[in-house]
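Sanity check. The docking grid for zinc ion depends on where the pocket ends up, so I'm generating a full predicted complex first rather than guessing from homology. Inputs follow.
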Amino acid sequence: MAKKKIIIEPDPILRKKSIKLEKVDMEVKKLMDDMLETMYSAPGIGLAAVQIGILKRVIVIDISKEETKKNPLFLVNPVIKHKSKSLSVYEEGCLSLPGHYAEIERPAECNLSYIDYDGKERDLHAKGLLATCIQHEVDHLNGVLFIDYLSKLKKDMIIKKLKKQKKEIDQIVI
Ligand code: ZN
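Predicted complex below; grid placement will be based on this.
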């Protein structure tokens, strides 16, 4: 496994649509291993491949709180089949938007079909934090970030701050 660099907004790649995979081969498994290591060390509870610069429809999630009992979920080609009418609100953050959080309202439950780490087709019914996390990550595969749900004013303010943060980091690197 190898830890990868996480891409920070604003970056045009985060706005691109990721591509569906034909199959889960060794290369995809390695990608998922790398993504998991990158997510754990960040630390975060979800990561989409685009966030490390790979435009493939692959997501890793682990919402287990205990360090000792890791429970990773690997989602290849996830498709949300149904979203509940009832909504829930979580304060969301994103590894590509470090330091920024906002309350986002999303469907409280969703049904999902996907391919797992072993290449098997599976279905999942998710609710609570998992449902929110899945919807946040599937958004990444479609080039959508949580700030897109905010008012233009709030969104522009966050992007402006991130741009400034990025500039400062670049200056240190130079
Ligand atoms: Zn995110």
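Relevant for the grid: The beta strands are 46-48, 58-61, 73-83, 87-92, 102-107, 109-115, 121-127.
Also worth noting: The pocket of zinc ion is lined by residues 94-96, 136, 140 (CB under 6 Å).
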